[in-house]
Amino acid sequence: MPVNEAATAIGHPSAIAMAFFFLFIAITLGITYWAARRTSTTEQFYAAGRSITAGQNGFALAGDYMSAASFLGIAGLVSTTGFDGLIYSTGWLVGWPVVLFLIAEPLRNLGRYTFSDVVALRFRQKPVRIAAATGTLATVVLYLIAQMVGAGGLIKLMFGLSYEQAVVVVGCAMIAYVLFGGMIATTWVQIVKAVLLLAGAAILAVMVLMRFGMSPTALFAAAAERYGAGVLAPGRLVSSPLDALSLGLALMFGTAGLPHILMRFYTVPDARAARTSVFYATGLIGLFYLMTFILGFGAMVLVGPDAIRAVDAGGNMAAPLLAELLGGTPFLGFIAAVAFATILAVVAGLTLSGAAALSHDLWVSVVRGGHAESGEQLAVARLATIGLGIVAIALGIAFKGQNVAFMVSLAFAIAASGNFPALVLSIFWSRCSTAGAVSSMVVGTLSTLLLIAVSPTVQIDLLGNSSAAFPLKNPALVTIPLSFLVGVIVSLLSSEPGAAARFAALERRLHLGAADE
Amino acid sequence: MASRKKRAPAPDLEQRLRMLARERTRVGLALTAAVFVVYFGFIGAVAYARDALGALVVPGLSVGILAGALVIVASWLLTWVYVRWANDRYDPALRALREH
Fold this sequence. Notes:
- The complex is a heterodimer.
- By secondary structure, chain A is an all-alpha fold.
- Chain A has a single domain (5-404), classed as Up-down Bundle (Sodium/glucose cotransporter).
- In chain A, 76% of the residues lie in helices and 0% in strands.
- In chain A, α13 (271-302) packs antiparallel against α15 (318-367).
- Chain A is globular, with a radius of gyration of 22 Å.
- Chain A starts with 14 loop residues before the first helix and ends in a 5-residue tail after the last helix.
- Chain B is mainly alpha-helical.
- Chain B has a domain at 53-100.
- Chain B is built from four helices and two strands; from the N terminus they run αααββα.
- In chain B, α2 (11-48) runs antiparallel to α4 (63-99).
- Chain B is elongated, with a radius of gyration of 21 Å.
């Protein structure tokens, strides 16, 4: 039953794929035009005027988070390795409960636009802002590179555009959304994307199940019958338990430190809406990852691992190939456009949070000492958007052909080690000091970058050396505890009576909200 | 609402807020620990109990696939537990504090 690889339309520009592609661009630019007329203040630009409802934010969070790597990468991994791929499906979800239990509501009540608002609240502004903005930019740039390189390859495969053209198209669209429509346009692009992605995955999953009498177990049984019972059991992917533990820690605590995710909690009216929105987002994202079980095994049985690898060695084309097999070229075109929308929504969110770090944290809080006209703030934010967009396009082209998939888990490791510990210490621990928070962020970020550089991921997989100085592929197992430890020790060594005295006010605001809202 | 802007709460209110804050932290940490145990229990089983995860519950459905799906379901349930606690207990307690 596996399809002949020559029979696929993947890699050839199809009129239907192009039509869906232009339709999506037209709709999102229409949304941007509508949003631009509602974006005249910093609160509207960064936080959509706090007017997004909990339900809308639930979809937007899901759209901000579920990247093409989830959709194409995990489906591909399951289709070529079976059960091992499912380990990732679960890992990408378990950070969300942590966001809900520890971060979402305090963040909404304590900050205005960025997570560094919260860390800086009772400490000296400048050092905290600089450290937090550095952590944000490191996370955002690494994440952006991974998305841009993925987008270039993907769009080249699906629409037949050249790699460079594809990167430029993605870069220009994301600049347009953020520059003119700010958070309002970004939110609605993310909502449209989440609906398209969930609908696309659901239709595909139902079409797969129809071949198996609507029974997932019949599908799994067919996979086991054809490729051996091993596809339903753990295989070689998790050969090192410590590696699995370290990656798991990065995913679980990194989600709660991703600046573009955290920023979304400022778009809702109050803490209760922030709470409800994470509840919805967890439901939607979990549902999506459950569907990847069906899509992955469906592609394994119906398309076949060899045919999938023949089109793309990484297995990324499993879901598109499955769509083509089940729904022909029109459905392939739709799924291709969904994958494209998926990338755009994520890069728009990343660009906006990077622009907020540059403008709100660095320019307004550090350079201007907290005093800048609204017009100036907006102008700097827009300039930062254009700058980040150009950097993303340049890096996307510079990293052409490189294996950058590890950069996403690296971004999670930095978010988990550089951003998350300082956020937790500043919110929940009265003794935390400026020096403690800053050293936690600096040590967390730098140690992550350093250990990645000497890890097997870079030394063996990327540079082709025979050994690596550090044994773990992802450093979170070391860097998260290190960052907490440094934050606690430095805080205890540097008593800051002012910061401790302000903790009572922080705690009050954490629960009751800011007095002026 | 206006009174809250102008003056700090009376000492006993301060006390009640602190107790509520402590309860929220306890609930948050306990639920975080629960997610941690569920997910890393699953990862531990993947690493150390491969054969057990490969056993079939019914034809086609291995213990491993069921456990993976249950990790997702458990994440849902735990977020639901938190939202119930927050809506039924935490929010009313905050409202009572605000009304003073």
